[in-house]
Model the fold of this input.
Amino acid sequence: MSAGADIRSLTIRQVKEGLAAGRFSAVELAREALRFAEAENPKTNAYLHFCPERALAAARRVDEKLARGEDLGPLAGVPVAVKDVILTQGVRTTAGSKLLANYIAPYDATAVIRLEQAGGVILGKTNCDEFAMGSSTENSAFGPVRNPVALDRVPGGSSGGSGASVAQGTAVVALGSDTGGSIRQPASFCGVVGVTPTYGRVSRYGLIAFASSLDHIGPLARNVHDAALLLGVIAGRDASDATSAFAPVPDYTALLDGNVRGARIGLPKEYFRGLASETGDLILAGVERLKQLGCEVREISLPHTEYAIGAYYIICTAEASSNLARYDGVRYTYRSPASATLSDMYRNTRGEGFGAECKRRIMLGTYVLSAGYYDAYYLKAQRVRNLIARDFSEAFKQVDVILTPVSPFPAFKLGEKLDDPLEMYLSDIYTITGSLAGIPCMSVPCGNTAAGLPVGLQILTNHFNEAGMFRLADALERSAGRS
Ligand code: GLN
Done:
């Protein structure tokens, strides 16, 4: 690749311009991106595997179109990383689990198909917590990911590999998945943009299920424009996912004009109690910048917030216990080698295959669904979920967007919270409410702590108002001089 574009800081726009000006071909860019990503990977363990053949084939298609003068598509030549819970035909897809260590996906996820149709070049698959359960990527069966910003710290989770790849510059954009914060929290910890769209906005077809009523696929990127563009590519109705929405997909990049005058912002008082002061200060400084741009800021209340963690960890474990029942040693890859009977084989396969966090959740989920406890736990949690959703719909009668921190603290040290699952669960407090309500939310970088650790600001908005959310995020980015 010729000089002029540093692979580490490339944006989608720069790729487009570079191709158009003939500064590099898509194949040259793909080769250089693969070389760089493979060379950098030992530092962070962000990628589990690369797919050079697939990447080069996709890049060749872009170059052929370029030569024929055809429309290239909005992601033409853009190096992309894909979280390893998203199926890629013919390429290993492990979900960070020993159970799927050698699983070759038989088909592509819809998001992957759309991404490649738009000209995207998938370099490889990114590391994650096993079956996307976790907040630090330390639950991967293939070793933890290190945060490229501070290598002794976690990148967040569960899409830690996707967050790290974008921050490290080994992918221009990435796909992650989010059930209770798994895109937003790593984006916050790594200093990149991460978006959880409205539930149903992006097809889940080909996403390995964790908790189906909460699972989303979404983009991670180095700026708001690139995240908005990628979401536009992967969003939209898909006949293969009955929960995908029919609502038309607007051009999410069209409104990124920096004009947010008159936007009504709510700050939920429940989210600013007991916040580590540096994180809180950075968030409030971001809010102040938006005020100066003409936004109206008022305090609001989301009164059922304190019940969110309990409800989430009942609902997601219940759904996980059901979804993970399929890993029985009969289908997929791993099977315990020495078992006398079929039921021993099931037991041994699951006992040996699942890591501690998955086992914990399967047990918890099985318990809350069992006869006699279903009403007391699962049903009650569903009711709480409704109340939380209602809190938001009430709030959106008064304000257009809600701003909160993404996490109570910045990236923590590897190993720091591993022995205390409850402590880890509690750190999800700010992200899971939006997940339970199914509304769009995102993390946008909002400055660094004195120690240089990134802090993300969360923007939440009403169903299908992604465009309004991006507009505000973009204005915030511009106000920090980072657009
Ligand atoms: N950290 C949350 C959990 O452990 C969220 C995970 C996710 O969004 N996939 O469940």
